[in-house]
Amino acid sequence: MLQILSLPAPARPLVIFASSSSSFKTKFTITPSFFPKSPKNPSSLSKTLKLTPMSSWLGKLGLGFGSRPGAATDSASASASSVAQGPDDDIPAPGQQFAQFGAGCFWGVELVFQRIPGVSKTEVGYTQGFTHNPSYNDVCSGTTNHSEVVRVQFDPKECSYDDLLDAFWARHDPTTLNRQGNDVGTQYRSGIYFYTPEQEKAARESLEKQQQALNRKIVTEVLPAKKFYRAEEYHQQYLAKGGRFGFKQSTEKGCNDPIRCYGEFANAPPWDVICC
After folding, report:
1. I need a labelling partner for 15 at 20 to 30 A (CA). Which of 7, 39, 90, 235 fits?
2. Where in the numbering of this chain does the Peptide methionine sulphoxide reductase MsrA domain appear (predicted)?
3. Quick one: pLDDT at residue 76?
4. What is the predicted pLDDT for the residue at 72?
5. Same domain membership, residue 149 and residue 33
6. Class of residue 70 by CB neighbours under 10 A (exposed 0-12, middle 13-18, buried 19+)
7. Band (254; pLDDT cuts 50, 70, 90)
8. Worst-scoring range by mean pLDDT, 37-51, 152-166, 194-208?
9. Is 275 noted as a catalytic residue in this protein?
């Protein structure tokens, strides 16, 4: 074991650069408190340091063998990613089931499912990403891999999973990759996220049926439901609450009114109808 034979106590902090990169240097400041105070008898310092292994000093600096700067941060990031990639462990109400769908901007998608008889609750949020507890801005940055989704809670006695799948396919274009209308980005991708083997089977069979009816390849992903991060409150039931222009849109069961993401005006342009 390498040992320090002698070392005078520094009068001021030492600065060590752990990286020699010309573009980036990680700086560590070693304050005198890391070292034994200089004794009146110099030989005493020498004896003290002879008994102190180099690994001990490095350990105090976070530079011990098997360690590197940022290791703790990396570990925390890996842990957060593990949580984000884990299953959705929320529990639906008794007798109810969950389903998750991504079909573009979640404002309009949520209203579609709100109107379906047998659906008792809807929430918009983020899933399938790598970061824990993302914000809307994080997701929009395109760096988290999250998808904007609607989590639907439904009573299977009143509404079948196939009914939800039919609404999903009718709502969007499943052949456009990472895009719905003017909304572009990985967060707008088409996806069905299943909770049970039965849901997976139904989703895949439904996709195959839809593909037979289209001459373009469907890009919808069918994956297990992962951790659901509820979006900020102002996104919840956005259109039912009035959207950006204060025009409240009906959530009545069975309602077939056109869904307008940005409000309704007498001279509303065509793109204002079903645009998100």
Report:
1. 39
2. 99-241
3. 61
4. 52
5. no
6. exposed
7. very high
8. 37-51
9. no
| Helix or strand holding residue 240 (H, E) | none
Q: What is the pTM (predicted TM-score) of this model? A: 0.70
Amino acid at 25: K
Of 105, 159, 275, 276, the catalytic one is 105
From the list 268, 252, 262, the residue with the least C-alpha distance to 105 is 262
**What CATH number corresponds to the domain at position 120?**
3.30.1060.10
3-class DSSP assignment, residue 81? helix
What range does the domain containing 44 cover? Answer: 14-63
Interior angle at CA 10, CA 5 and CA 16, nearest 5: 90
Q: 139 CB contacts (<8 Å, ≥6 apart)?
A: 126, 129, 146, 148, 187
DSSP 47: H
Q: Compare 158 and 24 and report the one with higher pLDDT.
A: 158
Say how far apart CA 255 and CA 117 lie, in whole Å.
Answer: 10
Q: Is residue 5 part of a domain?
A: no
Q: Strand pairing of 97-103 and 190-194?
A: antiparallel
In which band, very low, low, confident or very high, does the pLDDT at 79 lie, cut at 50, 70 and 90? confident
83 pLDDT band (50/70/90 cuts)?
A: confident
Helix (H) or strand (E) holding 28: strand 27-30
Tokens representing residue 71 in the block: 């290791």
Residues 104, 225 within the same domain: yes
